[in-house]
Each structure stands twice: as C-alpha cells, then as structure tokens.
C-alpha cells in the first residue's frame, strides 16, 4: 500500500492550483488538468466521452484500481459516482444525483410479510396487555369497579414521543402511573414490583428519588381507552387468518441449505454443538443471496445463529475506503486547520480515551504509531460519527455500505419491511441504530498486541461489514514470516460468538474467574459480566470454559468484504488481526423481538448510574407500532377487495341475458364466501352493511333470472 506521507499533498496541490495571484483573483486551470489532482504535468491525461472530465494515468492507477484507461474514456469515475477527489467528497456534491438504494415490494409480498410480523409479535403483544391488565385490575378493585367499567384518564403525553419510566429507565408503552403534581412516571412493571399498600395505591417517591413525596400516583394511559387491548383482538384475528406454512419454525428441523453442497464447501467451520445439525455455519456466497436464501437466513435467525455472507462488496460500485480517501472525506477542505481536526479514540492498551488528529490517526492506521517510550499504540475509533448520521458526514461511503447490505428486507435502514426499528414514527424516532463506522489498528496475536472488542451484547440484531483492511508496517525487527502471515486476506477480524442457550454458563464462568481474566479494580462493582464489556477470553480461557462448562463459541474469521450477522442476545468478542475499517448497522428482526425484550429487562435491573441502564431500543414501542401498522394494512387491503357492489337505482331496467345473470350470481356468492372467511378483519358495522347489500343484489338477480325464465317459457 502506498505510503500516507502524501496525505496532505493532494490537499496542498489542490489548494495551490486554486491559490490567488492577488486579492480575489483565482488562477485559471488548464482544460488539460486532471480532475483528481488538478495538475497537467502528467504524461497521459484521458478525457471522458460523457462529461469531458479528464484523469491522468497515475491517478487512475492509484485511486481506481478496478478501472483502466479505456474504462475511464467510456465513463469516468465521476460518471460512475465513485470519484474520490476532494471536490466530489464534499457533502453538497456527494449528495447530488446519488439515489439511495430502495426496496420495492409487490402487494402479495407485503401481505405475506405483514402476516409474518403479526404472527411472530403476537405473543409479545399478549404479554404487554397482560401486564397492563394486572395494573388495571388493581385500580378497579381500589375504585370498587369491574375492570370493564374502569376508564383511565388519557395522559397529556404525545403518543409519538419516547417516555421513560423515572425509576427503571425503561420505555413506557401505554398504561402507567403518574404524579399530577411533579409528573413523576412509573411503568407497570415497577408498579407490580414496588406496590406499597394493600389497596393498590402507590405514593410518589421523595425528592431524592425524583418525585415530590406527596400525592398518590394516578393510573393513566397514553392511548385511547382499551386501544391496545382492541389491537390485540384485531391482531389475533389476522394471525388466525394467515398461513404459517412458510414460517421459519414450520420449515422443519433440518437446515434448508444443509443439502446444498456448494454452500457447505464455502462454509466456515465451527465448533460442534450437540443440538446443531452440523459443524458448519451458514455461509452463502453473495451471488446466491436470492429469494430462496431468505428462507435459509430466516431459519438461522429464528434459531439465534450467526450468518456469514462473504464478499458482499463485489456487488457495489467499488467506491474506495482507502485511508487517504477517508481522510479527504473527513477533513474540512476550506478549514486551514484540517490537518489538526481531532478524533477521540480508545487506546486499547490502557483502555483510556485520547485525542488525535485525523492525519495522525490514518497515518498510524497503515504505518503504525508509537508512544514516547517506543511502544506501539493500538487505537480504535468506535461508533463514529457520534451523535451524527453517517449519511450526513460521509454520504458517499454511506450509500456504498447500503448497496452492500444483503437481506435488505431486514437490513435496509429506511425501507426494510422486516426491520422493526423502521416502524417507530419518523417524527419521534430517536433511535441511533447506525450505520456506525469503527476504525481499528490491528496486529497479529503473535506479536503480543491487544486490539480487542470485549465480550458484549449488540443493541439488537447486527450486521457488520468489513470494508477495508491494511497490514501495519512492522519494521525491521519483525520476522518476514510473521509479517507475511498478517498480510494474508484471512487475517481481518476474528469473532467469537456465543449461543443464547450458553449465556447463563458464560456469565457464571466470567463471575467465577473475573479476577483472573482481568484487573477489574477500576470497576466500582461488577454489575453484569457481559454488560460491563470488561472481559476478553483468550484461547486458553476458551479451553477452560469448555472443560468446566462444556461451552464453546462459534469462531469466525471475517475477511475483507464479509458481512457477519450477529443475532440479538448472542454475546460476542472480536480480535483485529489487521487494521480494519468496518461499518455496522443494528436492526430488529421480528424473530428477535423476544430476545430484545429479555435484554431490556436486564438493562432495567442494572444500577441507576450504569452507562447502559437506559432503554435505548424501545422495543415495546417498536412492537406496538409494528403490529398496529401490519394489522391496519391487512384490514385496509381486505376492505378494499371485499366491497359491496354499487347499484344505481336510476338505471332503467333492461333484460339481462341469463348467462350474464348466472355469472353475476356466482361473483356475489364468491364475495359472500370471502366475507365469511375474512370478515372478522372488518369492523362489524361495515361487514353488516356489505352482507345486506350483497344479499339485496342477489335477490334482484334471482328476480331477473325468474323474469328471464318466464319470458323464455312464454315465448
């Protein structure tokens, strides 16, 4: 890889070519200037036949390795939307004429997926309603009313806002208790846990706990009275009408792809588990990620198993993720201090945060970076950009990442029909699901360095794509054999992913050996062995875990261009064997909602000051909105396709042929049959009107048939 010594050269040369000879007078560029470097002193400069931009041969060779001169003549990098010069990477230019990949579904697909959403999320919705009904029963007994006679006051909270419980920091779904004086809010789970009096009342906590300590907390609802319960009834009707033969659990015990030899040959070998059907991980090539593979993916997702899709970048435009391109995209060209713009990074050796300029960081990404005592620094830029959208900060790289995403029904950030995080109303969406970029220095384990991501849970389901790798220059002291090992394409990132079923044993092992695994003196308390993100299991630790508890993880080597899917609730750790640039996106599959709810229950039990205490995912709200939208879509579709026939009373009666009358009668009988099967999806008064209208029309048809028959007989 070319040295980053010239990181500032292109920016400097660009500025020089635009420098002023005097106040306000720009130097005029020659028409032969290269669009990339703005120079015209190169031997070969070729022009594009589409836009007339010109690129010199050195820039084509260095920055666009997939193109040759003839390709540029036919359509230059700018026409292909992959130009990575400083001007084209500006946010304004980068957003221009670049379509965001969309996902369009036919009506039949929307119906099927909507049925799947309702069917899979129905158990969770039942649980929510049951919890709320328990609190309703307490309130009804207190007021001396039957639960059917209880009417709750609707709160002034906006239905689209995320409201957190002031006690456990979990999201408030619908029914909750609130203080009319200080607006302290308590979720129904906390109500059931801390109920103070036999009559069912709960007093507002003292000021030290966020309340006022005076009034009783009143039971309220965010939505109109019984709206959530009525939604459950409608959802049950939809689920009963839908087919379940295509559901992941109905496919059978065997993996749908287990008999496909080509996929087995490409599979990444795994640790064998007694309850699995083989010692390999589902690993289809990106070229066969088609409709049939979606079922295969869903089968593994339903079982909570990771999936690897290799070389997903091969189907994208080829936009560069090289360090210098990233540096150009991150810096502010018109800012004279662009070389000193800072990143806040994690020093993996000391686990401390430090500040470093973009130029220094990317230079160390390839060449290595050392501290004052000559020790190699291992730095990591995590979850970047913080508090901002990758689409706004690096728009071209964002679009390239979206184009690489497999299984877009689940992973598309905005249009994924089976991505439940897209169901929260846009006006209130405060979820930070990504995509986020991580840039990590990495060297091989043999060198004794530690470029690690500790054992942790992802926020939800996650897909991580390795977009770029680089072997750090190791210097003359490193043996040739070790340096060669690190340049192998296999050496990207090493993942260990644990099964959901093994989590209790894993947590027990981490608690038991916490002192041996890591110096945890910096922790005030070990609240949770996984949520603390404090441990990494070495090869020796994994051997001990297997010997003591019979637990071993899936171990995956992520290569350049590989997409690794980690289901919600699977603890995982990562070791970076080379410098890596990866982009991760969190999504919520319907199959994983139950596991996300389990994780949210763990978060609410963490100490109040814990950094992961807050319910950031809002999975209950997500579930409610997803079910509501799916049910509404199915009901609307049914209503539009089971319509009462229009009868115009002003039309003069004419003699209708018997053949047409028989056809019309058959059509009306079909509509009656459809109403009997799916009429429960329609509101009762609408169904009654439709049935009466069809019956009246059938009576008229019978009269016409009789008239036609009598007229035929008399003649």
UniProtKB/TrEMBL annotation:
SUPFAM superfamilies: Clavaminate synthase-like (SSF51197). Residues 34-80 form the RING-type domain. It holds the Pfam family JmjC. One of its GO terms (cellular component) is chromatin. GO terms for biological process: regulation of transcription by RNA polymerase II. It comes from Perilla frutescens var. hirtella (Perilla citriodora). GO terms for molecular function: chromatin DNA binding; histone H3K9 demethylase activity; transcription coregulator activity; zinc ion binding. PANTHER family: JMJC DOMAIN-CONTAINING HISTONE DEMETHYLATION PROTEIN (PTHR12549), LYSINE-SPECIFIC DEMETHYLASE JMJ25 (PTHR12549:SF11). It comes from the Eukaryota. Belongs to the JARID1 histone demethylase family. PROSITE patterns: JMJC, ZF_RING_2. Residues 413-604 form the JmjC domain. Residues 1-20 have a biased composition (Polar residues). The keyword Zinc-finger applies. InterPro entries: JmjC_dom, LSDs-like, Znf-4CXXC_R1, Znf_RING. Keywords: Metal-binding, Nucleus, Transcription, Transcription regulation, Zinc, Zinc-finger. The keyword NADP does not apply. This is Uncharacterized protein. It is found in: Nucleus. Residues 1-27 are annotated as: Disordered.
């Amino acid at each position: 890889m070319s040295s980053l010594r010239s990181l500032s050269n292109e920016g400097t040369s660009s500025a020089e070519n635009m420098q002023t000879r005097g106040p306000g007078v720009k130097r005029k560029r020659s028409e032969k200037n290269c669009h990339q470097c703005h120079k015209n002193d190169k031997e070969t400069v070729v022009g594009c036949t589409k836009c007339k931009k010109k690129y010199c041969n050195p820039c084509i060779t260095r920055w666009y390795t997939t193109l040759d001169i003839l390709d540029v003549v036919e359509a230059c990098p700018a026409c292909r939307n992959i130009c990575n010069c400083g001007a084209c990477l500006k946010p304004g230019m980068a957003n221009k004429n670049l379509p965001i990949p969309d996902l369009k579904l036919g009506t039949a697909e929307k119906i099927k997926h909507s049925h799947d959403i309702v069917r899979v999320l129905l158990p969770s919705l039942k649980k929510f309603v049951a919890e709320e009904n328990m609190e309703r029963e307490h309130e009804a007994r207190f007021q001396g009313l039957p639960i059917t006679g209880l009417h709750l006051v609707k709160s002034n909270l906006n239905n689209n806002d995320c409201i957190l419980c002031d006690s456990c920091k979990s999201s408030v779904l619908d029914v909750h208790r609130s203080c009319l004086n200080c607006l302290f809010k308590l979720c129904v789970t906390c109500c059931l846990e801390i109920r103070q009096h036999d009559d069912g009342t709960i007093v507002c906590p003292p000021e030290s706990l966020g309340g006022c300590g005076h009034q009783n907390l009143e039971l309220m609802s965010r939505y109109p009275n019984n709206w959530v319960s009525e939604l459950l009834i409608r959802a049950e009707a939809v689920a009963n009408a839908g087919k379940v033969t295509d559901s992941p659990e109905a496919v059978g015990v065997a993996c749908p792809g287990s008999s496909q030899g080509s996929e087995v040959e490409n599979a990444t070998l795994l640790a064998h588990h007694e309850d699995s059907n083989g010692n390999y991980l589902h690993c289809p090539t990106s070229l066969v990620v088609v409709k049939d593979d979606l079922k295969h993916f869903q089968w593994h997702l339903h079982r909570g198993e990771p999936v690897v899709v290799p070389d997903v970048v091969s189907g994208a435009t080829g936009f560069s993720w090289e360090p210098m391109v990233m540096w150009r995209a991150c810096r502010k060209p018109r800012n004279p201090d662009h070389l000193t713009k800072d990143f806040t990074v994690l020093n993996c050796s000391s686990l401390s945060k430090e500040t470093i300029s973009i130029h220094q960081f990317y230079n160390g990404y390839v060449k290595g970076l050392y501290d004052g005592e000559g020790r190699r620094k291992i730095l990591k830029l995590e979850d970047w950009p913080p508090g901002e959208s990758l689409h706004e900060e690096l728009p071209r790289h964002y679009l390239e990442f979206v184009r690489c995403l497999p299984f877009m029904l689940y992973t598309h950030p905005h249009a994924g029909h089976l991505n439940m995080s897209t169901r929260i109303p846009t006006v209130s969406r405060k979820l930070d699901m990504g995509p986020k970029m991580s840039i990590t220095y990495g060297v091989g384990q043999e060198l004794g360095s530690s470029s690690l991501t500790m054992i942790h849970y992802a926020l939800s389901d996650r897909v991580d794509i390795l977009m770029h790798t680089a072997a750090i220059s190791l210097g003359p002291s490193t043996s040739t054999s070790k340096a060669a090992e690190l340049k192998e394409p296999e050496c990207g990132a090493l993942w260990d992913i644990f099964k959901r079923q093994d989590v209790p044993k894993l947590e027990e092992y981490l608690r038991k050996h916490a002192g041996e695994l890591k110096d945890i003196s910096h922790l005030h308390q070990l609240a949770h062995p996984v949520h603390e993100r404090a441990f990494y299991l070495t090869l020796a630790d994994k051997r001990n875990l297997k010997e003591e508890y019979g637990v071993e993880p899936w171990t995956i080597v992520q290569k350049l261009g590989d997409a690794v899917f980690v289901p919600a609730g699977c603890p995982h750790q990562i070791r970076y064997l080379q410098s890596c640039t990866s982009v991760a996106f969190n999504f919520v599959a319907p199959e994983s909602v139950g596991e996300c709810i389990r994780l949210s229950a763990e978060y609410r039990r963490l100490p109040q000051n814990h950094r992961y205490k807050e319910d950031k995912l809002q999975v209950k709200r997500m579930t409610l909105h997803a079910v509501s939208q799916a049910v509404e879509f199915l009901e609307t579709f049914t209503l539009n396709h089971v319509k009462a026939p229009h009868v115009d009373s002003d039309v003069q009666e004419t003699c209708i042929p018997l053949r047409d009358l028989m056809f019309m009668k058959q059509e009306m009988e079909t509509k009656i049959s459809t109403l009997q099967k799916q009429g429960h999806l329609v509101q009762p008064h609408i169904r009654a009107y439709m049935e009466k209208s069809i019956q009246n029309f059938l009576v008229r048809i019978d009269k016409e048939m009789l008239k036609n028959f009598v007229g035929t007989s008399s003649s």
